[in-house]
Amino acid sequence: MKNYIISILISTFLIQSSSSPILAADINNGQTIFSANCVGCHAGGKNVIDATKTLGINALKRNNMDSAESIITQVTNGKVSMPAFGTRLSEEDIEDVASFVLSQSTVWDKDDN
What CA–CA distance (Å, rounded) separates 30 from 13? Predict the structure, then answer.
């Protein structure tokens, strides 16, 4: 029981202390939602509309999109060529997608090089 409580405290601390926290989200659900809604333009973290705005961590940083909050805003409201998903996806699904994107951003960045 003691180890369980310590594990919960450590997990809570890590989530709260991250400079760009990944929300307590379901990354597997995020991957499913991403595959169903985003992969048409963002397969493998690419961007078929604007090649400079990939989902690799370096491009996300360059475009000030390297936080869960900024990705959630983008997915919810859309911008330029990207449609808004705020009326099609639940807030929870959008949070899950943001967490999935951030979790894959370093992998996708390596794929860009």
Answer: 23
